[in-house]
Structures are given as structure tokens and as C-alpha cells.
Design a protein that fits this description.
alpha/beta; 4 domains; 19% strand; Rossmann fold; 6-stranded parallel β-sheet; Transcription Regulator spoIIAA; single chain
């Protein structure tokens, strides 16, 4: 790689949730359009970007350690440009700039549309300052201007105009091509969150809940379908709060904000008066399903257990291409803890919702059961053994497909951090986490077993974990012989594997895909519409590349947890 190439080569590492993955995708598209190229190893890059997550301290620690390493590298390569994007840049930019002088740019999630300009500036400044410095003189490094842009800390005002919401332009400018997606894509429908759960930084880092115009969303889905995407996951922190009031470019009024003339009935369907120009979440799902038939699978994450209307469940029931899957975090089974978390529902409310959803979507003999995944926090402030037992009971009752289980991590700026003592010892958090993982494993085993013998359609995502490891070993061997980097099935197999939940966020989960990998055929990994993993052999007469991004039919032959072994029919 020449020096000039290196200046335009970017390494971008993403931490955290699907929302961050989508942000990274949009940033990559915007930077590619300006001539930047993306590389999969930091050492090949002249620009290093971290898209960060602040939800738990572990994710932040990882970034801090990467930045520490980069400080050493930057002494040798003064023109290297380093940027911190996302929630850490929003939450902690002043102190981070001070602690990590190697950082040139900090850009919060509400300002990502400005990143291309900032980066261009930083690249030019670094290069000219480094080029003009006398040998051995490093003083210019401190004088090179660091830029910190925070977007939503003050939470935007309700009078925000269309023109002002340049962030919407970033979503609108999304580059859509078969190269960007292998059959599957995320589409954002809401940004931010208004819930203020006492443990959570998201309302502070991502700002107020805002809903994108339905026409923009439907258009984006159409463009994705035209480019070959067949599975779309709609994204929002509380996706079921989606509610767009026409007339505004980006609507801020969601179901959490009581409005004149509107009522909720016990957390069920929100009443929308005839003639009102409102698109509800149910309306939006229906529109996408009907207007974009090229999308063979439509799903959404993350649902908030309250405010989930029967209207949404009806659309799920009546729309054959909608997935039977809900990711609906309960966080705790104890009402006292839920109250302390400010979740706004009880364990009984949660059970009522799950039973209502299962009853509504139950189709005898159709083999498409509703599958429910969740998140749990153990060791939240004041959680007793009795509270914890209640969480275990709830897990048994709900029969979750899987749960992402987190140890409570106090986050500066949150209500819990300010007001509630973090009084559950680390050893107790660890024990509860392990106990819950073991319990969830037995529940997941039962869920997995219930599929054995069934015929299920699956969306093929790529090579199985075993196959990826095999390819990595082959690549390492090849590289040691002076070869070139390897991609199989369009996947960059040299990328670092994500943590267990697939999001690199430091959670403990029972969803690990641990396929056996004994066969000599190439193994593929795929998902059912209820989000169970199915591993199966690629037919010998078909290239793996040709399978990825397709929906095929398999018969399930065995199950280990929620990783199912299948054979293609
Ligand atoms: N500590 C531990 N887990 C947390 N989560 C959010 N904030 C915290 C925290 N401070 C978890 C919740 C949420 C998921 C995305 O992260 O379970 O649903
Ligand atoms: Fe955080 Fe609660 Fe909003 Fe989820 S609903 S993003 S946990 S504040």
C-alpha cells in the first residue's frame, strides 16, 4: 500500500448494538463516496475510527485500551488520524480529549452527518503539520486542533424543523447496493429514547425519541429490496412507540407523551381518531409489508413491554412475511426492582403481554411459534436473593428463546448512579449471572428440542462459526507464506470475531452458535423467522456465495440449545 493510499484507508471498529452497526454502515457509505476505502486491519489504515457504546463500562474500557495503544503508534506515525464516534463521544468528550491527546475527532451519534467534513479537515491538518515539523519536534501534536461535536446532550427541542434535522439526511443518503448487503439490512425508524430507565445512558447519549417520516422509511425499504435485500430489521430503542404525526418532518410525539384527545387502554392499542393524520407502528408495518413485496422477512427490534398494541399483533398475525419474533427486554422479574428501574410495568403486566401475544399469534399446525428474546440485568441496586428468585420464576414462565444477561454496571449521569447505591457485591452479581445463564440454557434447550423434526424456512447468513475458524486458520497459513487476505462468501473472514451475543457489548448470553463442524462439506449458518440459528451443509453442487442471502427450506435433525442442526431440502 502506498503512502497516499494509506492516508485514505480507514479502519472502523464498531462496538455495541444494531443501531451502532447501522450508524457505522451509513458513515462508511458517506466516506466511500468521498474516496476513502475501508481496510480490515488497523495497521493498514491512516484513519482509525471507533464507533463506541456507553451502555456498560466494559464496552468503554475496550475503547480506552485501544486508544492507549494508539497513542504509542501515533508517536511513530504523527499523521495518523484517530476518531471516536458514538455514545462515548457524546457522554465523555471533554475528559476523553484531555486523557487521550491522540484523538483528533470526537463525534456524538447526533452529529454523524458532519463526520465527513470533520475527517477531511483533520486529515489535511495532520498531514500538513506533520510534514512541516522539524525532525524530533513533537510539539505540533498538541497544537493540532481536536474537534469534539456532541449532538443530543441537550435533547433537541420539539420545534425542530425538517431542514434542521440534517441527521435525517444521513439516513436518506444511504448508499444501497448489492455490495453493501448480502440480503439483509437494518432500517432505522426511530432515534433516541424518552424512557429514562434509571440505569441507562441512552436517553442522554442518543437524545429524545424521534420518528422518521413513513414515506422515507418505505422508500428506503423499496430501494433496499430493489438492490436484492430480502430481510429488513426495523430499528428503534423502543420501536413499538413509533408514531408519526404528519405535517412535521420528523415527529417527536410518541406514545409515551400523553396527548390531548388520545387515550391508551391498559397498555393495549393506542386509540387514533379517525381523520387524524397519524401513522402508527401498526400502520407502518402494514405499509411496508404491502408496498414492498420484495421483502420476504420483516422484523423489528427492540420492543418496549408496555404500549404494545393489539393492532401491532394483528398486523403480525395477518402478514405472512412478518417474522414471529419479539425482542422485548423485561430486565427483572421483581416488581420492586422494576419500579426502582423506572420501567413502568410489573412482572404481571409483562406476563399478560406475552400471553396475549402468544394467543394472538397462535396458529395450530403452522409451525411458526412466536419466539421471544429478552434482556436481564442482574445485581441492580438493592436486588435481594428474593428479587432474584422472582426473575428466575419469570424466566421459567415466559420460556424465552434466549436472554442477554448483564451484570449491572453503574453509568455516570444516570439516576441510579446519582441516587442509588451499587450495593450488590461483584461476586454476587457474577453468581446470579451464571445461575441465570444456566437456567436460561435449560429453557433454550427445551425451545430448541421442540423444533427437531420440523421443516423450517431459514435465511442464509454466511459461513458457520466452525467454517469461519477453518478459513481463518487457512488464511493465517497463507499469510505466513506471503499470501493475500482471504474472503469467502463475501465475508471478511479475517475480521475479529464478535463476543457471544454477536454485538461485542460484553454481555453474557446463551445464544452462542456452537455448531459441531464434523462434516467435510462447507457449513452455512442461517436463521429461522423466530431467530433460532440453523447450521446445515451447503449442497456440494452450489457455491456458498450463491446461498448467502437466500431463504431455503431445511429439516431440523438435532438441537443444542437454540443452535439447530438441519439438512437442506
Ligand atoms: N448496566 C447493565 N446493563 C445495562 N443495560 C442498559 N444499561 C445497563 C447498565 N447500566 C442493558 C439492558 C438493555 C441492554 C441494551 O443493555 O438490559 O436492555
Ligand atoms: Fe435505555 Fe430504557 Fe430507553 Fe431501553 S427503554 S434505551 S433501557 S432508557
Amino acid at each position: 500500500m502506498t503512502a497516499n493510499n494509506r492516508h485514505n484507508a480507514v479502519f472502523l471498529e464498531t462496538f455495541g448494538c444494531q443501531m451502532n452497526e447501522l450508524d457505522s454502515e451509513l458513515v462508511m457509505g458517506a466516506l466511500r463516496a468521498l474516496g476513502y476505502a475501508f481496510v480490515c486491519e488497523p495497521k493498514l489504515a491512516g484513519v482509525i475510527l471507533y464507533n463506541t457504546c456507553s451502555v456498560r463500562d466494559l464496552a468503554e474500557q475496550k475503547v480506552r485500551s485501544r486508544l492507549g495503544e494508539l497513542a504509542v503508534r501515533k508517536r511513530k506515525e504523527p499523521d495518523l488520524v484517530v476518531g471516536v464516534l458514538g455514545c462515548m463521544a457524546e457522554r465523555d468528550s471533554a475528559s476523553m480529549l484531555h486523557k487521550f491527546p491522540a484523538v483528533d475527532i470526537m463525534c456524538g451519534p447526533g452529529e454523524l452527518d458532519k463526520l465527513p467534513g470533520l475527517l477531511d479537515n483533520a486529515v489535511r491538518t495532520r498531514r500538513s503539520l506533520a510534514g512541516n515539523a522539524a525532525p524530533g519536534d513533537e510539539s505540533w501534536m498538541r497544537s493540532a486542533r481536536q474537534v469534539a461535536l456532541q449532538g443530543d446532550a441537550s435533547r433537541r427541542s420539539g420545534t425542530l424543523s425538517a431542514a434542521g434535522d440534517t441527521l435525517e439526511l444521513l439516513d436518506l443518503s444511504r448508499s444501497v447496493s448489492p455490495i453493501d448487503h448480502t440480503g439483509s439490512a437494518y432500517v432505522r425508524i426511530t432515534r433516541g429514547c424518552n424512557k429514562f430507565c434509571t440505569y441507562c445512558v441512552v436517553p442522554r447519549t442518543r437524545g429524545a425519541e424521534m420518528h422518521r417520516p413513513p414515506d422515507h422509511i418505505v422508500d428506503e425499504c423499496k430501494r433496499l429490496a430493489d438492490s436484492g435485500v430480502i430481510e429488513i430489521t426495523l430499528l428503534g430503542q423502543t420501536v413499538n412507540h413509533y408514531c408519526f404525526e404528519h405535517g412535521a418532518a420528523v415527529s417527536m410525539k410518541g406514545v409515551t407523551q400523553p396527548q390531548k384527545g388520545r387515550t391508551y387502554k391498559g397498555g393495549h392499542a393506542r386509540e387514533v381518531h379517525v381523520g387524524e393524520r397519524v401513522t402508527t407502528f401498526a400502520n407502518l408495518l402494514h405499509r411496508i409489508h404491502e408496498e414492498v413485496p420484495g421483502i420476504k422477512r420483516l422484523r423489528f427490534v427492540t420492543s418496549y413491554p408496555r404500549d404494545f398494541g393489539d393492532d401491532v399483533l394483528q398486523v403480525m398475525r395477518d402478514s405472512p412475511r412478518m417474522c414471529r419474533y419479539l425482542h422485548c427486554p423485561v430486565q427483572s422479574g421483581s416488581d420492586v426492582v422494576l419500579k426502582r428501574m423506572n420501567r413502568g410495568y410489573s412482572s404481571g403486566d409483562y406476563l399478560e403481554f406475552v400471553n396475549r401475544a402468544r394467543a394472538m399469534l397462535h396458529e395450530p399446525g403452522k409451525g411458526r411459534p412466536l419466539s421471544i428474546a429478552g434482556d436481564i440485568i442482574v445485581g441492580f441496586c438493592g436486588e435481594t436473593d428474593e428479587d432474584f428468585e422472582k426473575t428466575k420464576n419469570l424466566l421459567r414462565q415466559v420460556k424465552f428463546k434466549n436472554n442477554f444477561i448483564f451484570k449491572y454496571s453503574p453509568r455516570p449521569g444516570t439516576t441510579a448512579f446519582e441516587k442509588l447505591p451499587d450495593d450488590v457485591p461483584e461476586s454476587v452479581k457474577r453468581r446470579r449471572c451464571n445461575e441465570l445463564l444456566a437456567l436460561q440454557q435449560t429453557i433454550s434447550d427445551d425451545v430448541g428440542q421442540s423444533y427437531v423434526g420440523n421443516t423450517v424456512d431459514v435465511f442464509v447468513q454466511g459461513l458457520s462459526a466452525t467454517e469461519t475458524k477453518r478459513a481463518k486458520r487457512a488464511e493465517a497459513k497463507k499469510m505466513s507464506n506471503g499470501g493475500v487476505a482471504l474472503t469467502i462468501g463475501g465475508q471478511d473472514v479475517s475480521e475479529e470475531a464478535h463476543d457471544s451475543c454477536g454485538t461485542d457489548c460484553g454481555c453474557a448470553t446463551t445464544t452462542v452458535a456452537s455448531d459441531s463442524g464434523a462434516s467435510s462439506a462447507i457449513q452455512l449458518t442461517s436463521r429461522t423467522d423466530g431467530d433460532l440459528i440453523v447450521v446445515f451443509d451447503c449442497p456440494s453442487d452450489t457455491a456458498p456465495d450463491a446461498m448467502i442471502g437466500r431463504i431455503v427450506t431445511t429439516r431440523i435433525t438435532s438441537a443444542k440449545g437454540i443452535t439447530l442442526q438441519g439438512e437442506m431440502l
